[in-house]
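Hey, resending since the last one bounced:
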Amino acid sequence: MPGRPVSANSSTVAAQVEAEGVLEILHQDFPHSGRYLYFLKMPDGTRVPLHFKSRPPTNLLTGDYVRVHGQPSGGTIMLDSGGTSVTTTSKTTSSTAPLPNTFGAQSTLVILVNFQDAPANEPYTVADAQSVVFGTTSSFFLENSYQQTWLTGDVVGWYTLPLSSTTCDASSIASYAQFAASSSGVDLSAYTHYVYAFPQNNACGWAGSSYIGGSPSQSWINGNSLDVHTIDHELGHAFGLWHSHLLDCGTSSTIGSNCTINEYGDILDTMGAPQPASPHYNAFQKERLGWLNAGASPSIATVQTSGTYTINTYETGGSGPNALKILKSIDPTTGAKTWYYVEARQAVGFDAFLANGTCEPCYTQNETDGVLVHVGTDGNGNSGDLLDMTPATPTYYWWFDPSLVVGQSFADPAAGVTMTTASVTSTEATVTVQFAAAVTVTTNQQTYSRGQTVSATATATFGGSPVAKAVVSFAITKANGSVVTGTATTGSNGTAVYSLKLRKNDPAGTYQASAAATINATPRSAATNFTVQ
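The structure tokens again:
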């Protein structure tokens, strides 16, 4: 195993290794699921699989130079969470800068290949591929980027690879395809994106696969026809995008603490569920690409005061704003900001399919009758979630009525913000945003033993922004009803901390930690429970 061993604290802990090289993040899109694979490409060319026990890094791209430290296991390096087991000197970790190489002509090489057990299998022509990739797909990127990004390049092949269609080895397909193209006189260095397309290979199982970023990027298209959505989706990965999800909080809530992430649940984004057409990428994704809120791109209005705001129809160009951005929360440990993104979709261009229902069956369809709301976190490319503003309505497989329609309001008490859709036309939408004060409280654990210290953290915000110098009154109510109180003052990050050491004779059971503060002359309070064993 490459790397150098580091000391272990006991004989029961496996020896650890440190290794460095180029990170590779590969995604495989199966019909109703997907998976991410991680590799470390060593300086000698060796590729070592990486397995994260939890929270793989979502602020990095393929091609970033990293150092990892973990435990070797059968040729794989086992790692803890990405933030503690991977360090990097690359520049793609910025929480605000657009992803690299997302503007202008994108030089793309499409290599058509088949397999030695079916050398005559050429289910579509070079001309077909040329039309789909450099016609329809290029138009998709041109429209999404507001005329700033498009595809140029060539289609070559067909080449028969010395591989069987009964096996699936994406790395070998890529290597042999590049060798075949180079041998026929193709200058591979002239392209920044490689796309390998081949007839249906059931051994692979996935319809498409791609690295997340990379220079050159690499994508694989598996099928007897060139599906436009699949190509748009995989090239989205190649640009550096992760998936667009849906936050599913059940039938009674839009947000909450008991929610699940539906990986492909955003049916209104090509990085989500497949559609007959390819919907636009959402505002969180476009901001990451620089196609919103950067350079000559339409703007996103960051809302910080109460008022009524107008946004353009999302699919159209101009100076903007084409979306609103409203602070939801700030992580007290990392400082990462999570935002609400608000956009107004209409049946325009590649979103024309919104003019009629495509679900089976459609109970309702309200995408063009209001605004869509997503959440996304700075520096976390895998955090883009669509919110369902009508959670009580029945659904069939995907969510087709997620909009906040005219006259409807959505409130987030923890963030101290309420948004209401005031009007929607074919060219714009207006949204009223009202800010309020808020206090939240959390404890550093859910369960304690006697003798441990409870650390309660209160966060004071106004309109999602932290409030400094607020005096917070804490109260810890024990399982027997007795109360211990204390005060603390919030710092510049809006947080205040109160600690209580549990005594040996404290009762077991459920305790409550509460916090109260007056913010902008408005009293606010919050509480949370924890258990003492």
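Residues 104-239 form a domain with the Collagenase (Catalytic Domain) fold (CATH 3.40.390.10).

Sorry for the duplicate.
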